[in-house]
Design brief:
This protein is of the alpha/beta class and 292 residues long. Helix content is 45%, strand content 18%. The structure holds S-adenosylmethionine. The site of S-adenosylmethionine (SAM) has 24 residues, from loops.
């Protein structure tokens, strides 16, 4: 079988388009990966070259129809429930403790943003952890937003149906409690679904009317170049309320890169966790020092 080849020039053009639409930086080593992923789209559209596909994406009407497929082809959506257990322990203990201590008056509201949520596993994990750990849960008003650039993964998130791999790190009793399990598929219970909603959002742009207490920005910065990383860190900092927490996960590029540390409005608390200054915290200065 004759495979259509992605030439160096075509790679440059496609990589520039990917960067323009998503901020994802594709070095030349990714030529093979990109051509494999896009070749499926060429086949589906019956196109004879990558240049023809590039032209289609530049055409207004073609782009409208093809963009969701293009975005799902160029993004990496790997995720699963309870990814990085340590961070979920933090959310269920210290983060919750901080909320309880600081929400003494008025409506007890918690707003969470799973930025680059992929198919929703992170957002629903957060719903489970808050549901299980917030004392007197019915007195809280919890809203969790999952957003991603790819509408494909968001459709899956809205459906809330997952395979065995996605739930494989969950303790069996938690799985049984929060999912309907039938024929190898696991469907998130309505109680959790009510806490979470999903919408498309490009991290290149600020999140509209954002006032979040907790933002997850995990396993996505690594796809961006320095300029885009700085831009995203700025948007995420702006989206947090004073005292809000930012969780970047175990692949944390912020602390080691001075330009990113400078762009970060939050203070380091412990591996993967930052906090925006400006409001009362349940953590004392000493505790923060001790975890540095
Ligand atoms: C590897 S997944 C991370 C999922 C989840 N946060 C986790 O840690 O398990 C990365 C996600 O980032 C999304 N993404 C990539 N570029 C984006 C952008 N510019 N704006 C919003 N989402 C983006 C991809 O579509 C993908 O679903």
């Amino acid at each position: 079988m004759n495979l259509i080849k992605l030439t160096d020039r075509e790679f440059e053009k496609m990589a520039a388009l990917v960067y323009d639409r998503t901020g994802i930086h594709l070095p030349v080593e990714k030529l093979g990966l990109l051509s494999n992923r896009l070749r499926k789209r060429l086949k589906a559209l019956d196109l004879e070259s990558f240049s023809a596909y590039h032209d289609l994406l530049l055409d207004k009407k073609g782009c409208e129809e093809e963009l969701p497929n293009f975005l799902s082809a160029v993004t990496t959506n790997e995720t699963y429930f309870f990814r990085n257990e340590q961070l979920w322990k933090f959310v269920g203990t210290d983060f919750v403790k901080n909320l309880v201590e600081t929400r003494t008056k008025g409506t007890k509201t918690v707003r969470v943003w799973s930025a680059a949520s992929s198919s929703g596993e992170e957002a629903y994990t957060c719903a489970i952890v808050l549901r299980e750990n917030l004392p007197s849960f019915s007195s809280w008003n919890v809203s969790i937003i999952g957003s991603d650039i790819s509408s494909r993964v968001l459709d899956k998130a809205k459906g809330g149906v997952y395979d065995a791999y996605a739930v494989s790190r969950m303790p069996p009793e938690v799985l049984k409690k929060w999912f309907k399990i039938a024929d190898g598929s696991h469907t998130v219970r309505d109680e959790l679904k009510k806490m979470v909603r999903f919408q498309t959002h490009n991290l290149r742009d600020p999140f509209p009317n954002a006032r979040f207490d907790l933002v997850f920005l995990r396993n996505v910065l690594m796809y961006f170049d320095l300029e885009m990383k700085k831009r995203v860190i700025k948007h995420v900092g702006d989206a947090l309320v004073p005292g809000g927490h930012l969780i970047v996960g175990d692949v944390d590029p912020i602390r080691t890169i001075p330009e990113l540390s400078a762009a970060n409005q939050c203070e380091y608390q412990r591996p993967g966790v930052y906090r925006k200054p400006g409001a009362k915290s349940a953590f004392t200065g000493n505790q923060r020092m001790a975890t540095k």
